[in-house]
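so my prof wants the structure for this chain in the tokens format not the other one, which i didnt know existed until like an hour ago. anyway here's the sequence
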Amino acid sequence: MGLLEAIIISVIAASTPLLLAAAGELVVERSGVLNLGTEGMMIMGAACGFAGCWLTGSTFIGALCGIAAGCALSLVFAALTLGLAVNQVAAGLALTILGVGLSGLIGAGFVGEKITPAPHLYLPVLTGLPFIGKILFGQDGFVYFSVALVIGIWWFLYRTRAGLVLRAVGDSHTSAHALGYPVLKIRLLAVLFGGGCAGLGGAFLPLAYTPFFIPGMTAGRGWIALALVVFSSWMPGRLAAGAYLFGAVTIMQLHAQAFGLGIPSQLMTALPYLATVIVLVLISRARGSAGSVAPASLGIVFVPDR
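here's what i got, hopefully its the right format
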């Protein structure tokens, strides 16, 4: 039971950055914008989040710095794609390259430094409960916020008028514009929200997962987050399930190596990314005859009155 409890706690921790980044990207894509710069925003969030926490000694300020870094990069992306109508795929890839390089520059002076990781919740009676105590009542604030974020996004998309307008913009920006909705403003807010979530997901890594910063520590998690949005069919509930599934794959490959199963470590390390590719291929084949459930205007540049 102790080993199972430790594995579940590890899975939750490994899934949290994926869930945070993917939740923000889901909102972005629901508005009709495809931002492939999630990896760049996450690594910038990691660098700036660690720097902010190391300089101030506050995990909360570090998290805010990570959010600000993600929003700043997403603002660059918005200026290119929404303001100048640049191709969204090209701009997203450029954003990732920029984020990786800039994070290395910002974090160069902090490599080798350590901080105190984010504190975990402790409730005198509940946290001490056998098995479920630490799992439900002993996590850090990032974990609880990620769950609340997904619930909030579901409520926003399906229970509010603003969420309905956002989905309408993603499905047909031309019709939404004809009805008088500010398409570019709505997409700008969605892109900033997604950037902030990606930055927070990146900040989680040095602030709670590992109490130090190394260049490239996101290790492709931004790309997995992008795949999770497709995996979930752009639905928040499925997104949470997918994030924990891929987190479990990541942790299980580590335990498989520890148990000495004789499988090459390189293959086990590649397992989460291989699973991502397989899932995307299966989803693509399954939708071949039924049609895509993606927002109809996803990735299409919108220029008013054209």
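also thought this was worth mentioning. The chain has one domain: 2-112+137-286.
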